[in-house]
Design brief:
Elements lengths: L11 H26 L3 H9 L1 H4 L15 E3 L2 H9 L3 E5 L1 H16 L4 E6 L4 H15 L4 E5 L11 H12 L4 E5 L10 H24 L3 E4 L1 H6 L4 H5 L10 H16 L1
Parallel strand pairs: 2-3, 2-4, 4-5, 5-6
Antiparallel strand pairs: 1-3
Length: 262
């Protein structure tokens, strides 16, 4: 089957260029703050932690997430969404924040949604949840994956989980996967650069998977942010989570457009 043309499919070169530009801007913005606090006790502790605090990939180490905020639809809503062939959504903290307004927008289009959103969660347990719902309820023809931001700590894990997702859903369903942008403003310039580098790494894995799967659609959040000056600052409140309501509306709008396009 011939794959539909994606008017905004990025090349590897574009992804890395966008990532480098965003990382440089984030690092420059933080440089004066970093210089002012370099002698602080917190900075000394961070230096003493060294590679342990930065993890293997420079972004740090993923903390415990199982007690963080979550939004999970009840069984009745899951079954209604499955029966009406709506959308199943699996997300992280961005999904917890942006899921309710997204549901309202989808409802106006006559599309129901059931969500399994959990703050701090990386891709692997999100795909576990997808597999559980598949076994317990069956799946509608549209699956929204709003995860990946918490995989900046271990970016190589993503590719296998994308493959696993596509195996679970099969060839007759469409997966919409929102790619990621992270350069957390609460951290110093080195971590911001690592965040951006790891985001680009995750996004390249998604782009590579899209070439293998006809039914995988990438929602190009990272490219949307990088395509216009000041969007990173205006659309993200902390270098990761969308601002409310400007960034939230922009990201949800991209998702809606992708779902409407099929």
């Amino acid at each position: 089957m011939r794959k539909p043309q994606d008017p905004f499919r990025p090349s590897r070169r574009l992804l890395f260029a966008a990532g480098t530009a965003a990382a440089a801007a984030s690092a420059a913005a933080a440089a004066s703050t970093a210089e002012a606090t370099v002698g602080s006790p917190a900075a000394a502790m961070a230096a003493a932690d060294g590679l342990t605090s930065l993890g293997n990939y420079g972004s740090g180490v993923l903390g415990a997430w199982d007690r963080q905020a979550r939004a999970i639809s009840n069984e009745a809503q899951i079954r209604r969404t499955r029966e009406s062939d709506g959308v199943f959504m699996f997300g992280d903290s961005i999904g917890v924040q942006d899921g309710p307004p997204l549901a309202r927008q989808l409802s106006k289009l006559g599309i129901s949604i059931a969500v399994h959103n959990w703050a701090g969660r990386p891709v692997t347990p999100a795909v576990d949840a997808l597999e559980t719902w598949s076994q317990d309820y069956g799946l509608p023809h549209r699956i929204l994956m709003s995860v990946g931001s918490n995989d900046i700590f271990t970016p190589p894990a993503v590719a296998a989980q994308v493959d696993r997702t596509m195996q679970i859903v099969g060839e007759e369903r469409t997966v919409y996967w929102v790619n990621v942008q992270a350069a957390r403003t609460a951290h110093g310039p080195d971590v911001k650069v690592a965040d951006q580098r790891n985001s680009a790494w995750i996004n390249l894995q998604l782009a590579d998977a899209q070439r293998r799967y006809d039914n995988l659609r990438i929602v190009h959040w990272a490219e949307h942010l990088a395509s216009s000056p000041n969007r990173l600052a205006r659309y993200l409140r902390d270098g990761l989570h969308p601002s409310v309501t400007l960034g939230q509306n922009a990201r949800n709008g991209l998702i809606i457009d992708a779902i409407k396009a099929g």
